[in-house]
Amino acid sequence: MAGLFLWKFFQYKQKSAFQVMGYCLLTAKGGAETLKFNMVLILLPVCRNIITWLRSTKLPLFQPFEDNINFHKTIAGGIVVGIILHAGNHLACDFPRLANAPRSRYEKYLIDFGENKPTYLDLVRGVEGVTGILMVILMMIAFILATSWFRRSGIKLPKPFDRITGFKAFWYSHHLFVIVYILLIVHGTYIYLVHKWYLKTTWMYLAVPVCLYAGERILRFFRSRYYAVQVLKIAIYPGNVLTLQMSKPLQFLYKSGQYMLVQCPAVSPFEWHPFSITSAPGDNFLSIQIRQLGDWTRELKRVFSDACEAPKDGKSGLLRADESTNKSLPKLLIDGPYGAPAQDYRKYDVLQLVGLGIGATPFISILKDLLNKVIKMNEQDSVSDFKVGITDSSSNRISPKRRKLLKTTNAYFYWVTREQGSFDWFHGIMNEVDEQDQRGVIEMYNYLTSVYEEGDVRSALITMVQTLNHAKNGVDVVSGTRVRMHFGRPNWEKVFSKTATKHANARIGVFYCGAPVLAKELSRLCYEFNQKGSTKFAFHKEHY
To answer: Taking the model in full, what pTM does it have?
Structure first.
């Protein structure tokens, strides 16, 4: 970036206009060159299909792609800097110098601007000025509405101004970039100091990336129409969690840990939202869990609630619906699948999965996939010990054939939530793991943070009742599952220490989905334990 700035800076220093417009011109042109490059670069992280394809190559070994959204935000910051350097220097510095230059100096050094010396107003209302100012205004709108304050409705505005907050305002304002790129091309063709078309480089920068992004959007449009799905089941659980189960198109092939985009035309015919796929690749259906967090999810829950009925026969969930429901179910469109960090879980010997609240969803598919493989291994065991490569007692090693089926030897899942009702929508997989994982591959740890941690006198009674009920009936009295509930928050340093001691010399993948604060702590612990011993931790965080 600095190289582009300096290249254009010194190039314009050789032009005669520098004698009048000074370093303001050089800084503006250097900023313009970085701005063009960043306007290209900002498109690539949001080309989801290209990023997903690149994940399947060897390139992630050298350049990770799991933080593409934060990279997109970083480039946006670079664009802001470029705008300040380019537009700021033009409007506040070199345009006034040009407008106030003596006639003699203008004719000697600035004849590229035309025979008649322009006024400041002429420069601003020309094609270059109008397109530039319009771009700045549109990008300011998009940038402001993309900040977390506005996007997550952190600012409460009175009506009707409340409409400019929330995800919907962010989504629509971000699509102003179509107009911005058109204006950028026009702006780049009207340059005072460059007259030959092949020296006007804006279109050269944009040609390939814009075509790639346009192709990406066209592919997504037609593929979403091709993937016809039918909603099979709906359940709305405590904690405002909506579970949707839908038919699985034959061509929709995905890996555990990946996500897909979902559109509900009844809510918005344009908006697409990413959700982790919670069904396993071997399932004959697709499922997702959606928590009400914004305007779109709130409306989605309302639409599906209208089609639901109260639960019957003791089934969990506040409201339910399926194909037998008399009411017509809303239509859904899907697109994907798209790559995510969790899809690489197979590379590791041991998994440490950490989810906060609804952040458990990326790991449900992984747990199901691992469980399916464990069940398959159990079935093969019943046919022939030799075929599955039972551990050789002399070598105490797993045969290559069995290792190919399941490289991951252990998975530890830590789910931390504040709401007891959250366990309703996850109790099925927890009980299934407890019943069918005879090899002990998966261990699950649930933490409820709204109750004082174990050992605290204020939670002593509920801990005693919980222990007695679990010992007698094998069911946790708090979560209603076979997995025992813990209170408070995990001691992550002890968790890492236990895992490192138990799995010496192993490669452990730590996958996390949740608030950024805990991500920093987990990343730090991975680094610290990597320095201490032979066990190597690799940290991955989900980004959408």
So the answer is: 0.77
